Structure formats: C-alpha cells, structure tokens
Amino acid sequence: MTTTATADDLLATLQEGYDLVRSSSPRRIAPGDELVEDLGLDSLDFIDIVSVFESRFSTEVVDRVIDRLPELTTVGDLVAAFQAADAAT
Amino acid sequence: MTDTVLVFEGQGATTIPGRPPLDLTALAPAEAQRAIVAHQLGRARARVAAGAEVVGVVGQSLGEVTALVVAGVLDEDDALELVRLRAELPAKLLPPADWTMASMTRLPSERAEAAAAGHELWVVGRNGPADCIVVGHRAAFAAVVAQLGLSPHTWRELPVGAPYHTPAMAPVAEALAEAAAGCAWRDPVIPVVTPTGPGEVRTAADARRTVVTALTSPVAWREALVTAARRWPGAAWRECGPSVSLHRFVWKNGLTLDWDEA
Which helix (H) or strand (E) holds B165? Predict the structure, then answer.
C-alpha cells in the first residue's frame, strides 16, 4: 500500500492520532512540537499514534517507523520517518 | 451533581505525582501497592467532595480493591492489609523465580496465547483488540518476544515481580482467602463491575470471592469496560491515578466516553 502522502497529509493523520491518544488535552500539533516535552507522549502513546497510520501504509512501513522511534524527537521527525519508510518499501 | 463512574488502574504505576513525585520503584512492593491504593482513595474522595454522584466503580487488578472500598464493601484498613498480604505473600509462598509482567501493544491476545503455549508464560490481561498483558518467567517472555519478532518499542515491562493472575498464584490465593475471612465484608452500596470473570459484584460474598479469585484469574478489562460503558453510557468517567493509564483502552475498544482524570 505505497502512498505518495505529502507532509501535510501525514501531519493531518498524526493530528488524528494525537486527538485519539490525548482527547482530554486537545491541541493543534505542529512540526516543531517535541513529542515528549510539548505533547507529553510516552512510549506506548507513540505506538498508539503510529498505529493510526496502518489504515494508510503497509505494516512494513509502520514497523520501520516504530524501529526508529527512539531517535525521533519532534512531530516533523515522525512525518519525515513515514516519508522515508514509505520511499524505502 | 454529576453521575460519575470512578476507575482504578492496577499496580503498573511507577510514580505518584507530586512535588517531589514518589518513586514507587524505590519502595518494597507492599509499600508501593498500598501507596497506589491510598492515592486512588484520596482522589476518589476528592471527587466526591467536589460534588460527583458516584453511580459505579470499576477497578483493574489491584484497583479492584480500591473500587471495593469506594463501594462500601471493605474498610480502608482491611483493604490495605489485604493489599500488603497480596504483595508480600508471593515472596514467602512461591518458589524463587525471575518473573516479569509486560504490557503489549500491537499484539492480539489470541496471537500471544498461541505463542505462549508450551512456555511458562500466560496472557493475563485482555485490554483491547491488540493490547494484552503477559506474565511469566523472564526467559520464557524473551523467547516468545523473539519468536513473534516483536519490536522492543511495542511493549513495556511493568514493575511487578510476581505471577499475578496466573495459576502459579494458587498458594497465595489460598493464604489470602484465610486472611479475607477475618475482614468485615458488606454488600456494595455502589455498583461494582469487575474484570474478574468478568461480571458484577453484587454481594459481600461476591466481593470476597473476587478478591481471592483475581489472583489466579485473567483480567478481562476489555469486556468489563464494554459492559460498564453500556450500563453507564452518559456518565462522567474519572480515572483516579496515579498514572491514569487506562484512557487508551476507551478508544481502542471503539468506545466514546466522557473520560478524564479525577
């Protein structure tokens, strides 16, 4: 299920994931937001948000992004990781 | 007055918020578990003091004990004594072993059960369609994780050092039953949905049996949550800490609830 999703598309999907995971503290996320410091996400929150992408990407793409989670700091990093994983598969 | 369901998590919390936070991993298991229950009771009482009308309670694992206190079934002192025993008896009654408990994501319980067959590993919690809790010998856990090819980022080890909710806890359950016989148990004055079974605690005898049976039975959190959501669909659901980890299982189970921290 390779896509040619733009960064804006991916950001919108990330927003969906954030809205699910942090429904009690809604906010508009931006590429510069830090996943831990700004959004208060823990490791399992990351997995939950990333899993939202399973409707758009293959499991292989999602797994590739999960493997890179420790090195991802910002929302923009996560978007770029999806683009890179998509391009590599 | 707002109709409210109070929810209490299990013993996976590692800290109690505050300044400074209380590091539960630095405490003996009995002290950590008693601190969790005391914290949960404090938040529940604060909620009631703020005007909440508690129409139901639901607890997960250790949180079941808290739920029973809030429901008027157990006195706090008796509950804390049972919690102490629940934490200390495994080390006294079970053979030494390197146990671990882990919260798994992206792993349906059926797949985990199939992989665990033949290993000293049990699926002890069903939290969502692809979320489960496993308990077992550390070596067995490592073998199953390798067999399934799981990324280390998709699971989290919990600070729990005994095989709760497995048949291995039978000697502990037997001893806890004796201790429970010395406590005063009352019928709930607030409805209690339990993930042990799952079902509803309707009487003092139900409650006493549930606390003991929970030690050797899996935690059907998914089923309990769905049952409770059907029963109290319009209520405010308030999770009484300390790590408020259960919110994720609302949307993961396809539920829409007014859910927040207490």
Answer: none
The pLDDT assigned to A52 comes to 84
Residue B144's nearest CA partner among B117, B179, B177, B165 is: B117
Per-residue pLDDT band at B82 (split at 50, 70, 90) = very high
Inter-residue contact B251 to B36 (CB < 8 Å): no
CA B99/CA B220 separation, integer angstroms: 21
Q: Which residues contact B193 (CB under 8 A, 6 or more apart)?
A: B56, B57, B58, B199, B200, B201, B224, B227, B228, B231
Range of the domain at B31: 2-94+165-261
Chain B residues inside the 8 Å CB shell of A48: 105, 248, 252
CA distances from B163 to A39, B9, B115 (A): 34, 18, 18
On whether any CB of chain B is under 8 Å from the CB of A1, the answer is no
User: How far does the CA of residue A73 sit from the closest CA of chain B (Å)?
Assistant: 15
Ranges of beta strands (E only) in B48-169 are 52-59, 99-104, 121-128, 131-137, 155-158
The pTM (predicted TM-score) of the whole model is 0.92
Domains of chain A (ranges plus CATH)?
A: 7-88 (1.10.1200.10)
CATH, residue B120? 3.30.70.250
